[in-house]
Specification:
Layout (H helix, E strand, L loop, with lengths): L1 H40 L7 E8 L6 E5 L1
Antiparallel strand pairs: 1-2
Length: 68
């Protein structure tokens, strides 16, 4: 019984680690694609500016909190 329990735990750990590894790779590739799109858009892309803060809004030339 002890051997079966150890085998089950080993299989469970391997499956969990494989799932987490694949999930982290998809997040990295998604972040990579966002960066590629941002670089391809250049400085003249459309932006939405929100709030009041310390960032310069490229379209409205005012200080904002968040640029999307």
């Amino acid at each position: 019984m002890n051997t079966k329990l150890k085998l089950f735990c080993l299989i469970f750990v391997v499956c969990t680690l494989t799932y987490l590894y694949k999930k982290s790779k998809s997040v990295e590739s998604e972040l990579f694609m966002f960066n590629v799109e941002a670089l391809a858009g250049g400085e003249n892309g459309e932006a939405s500016c929100y709030g009041i803060g310390s960032l310069d809004c490229p379209q409205e030339h005012r200080k904002v909190y968040f640029i999307w």
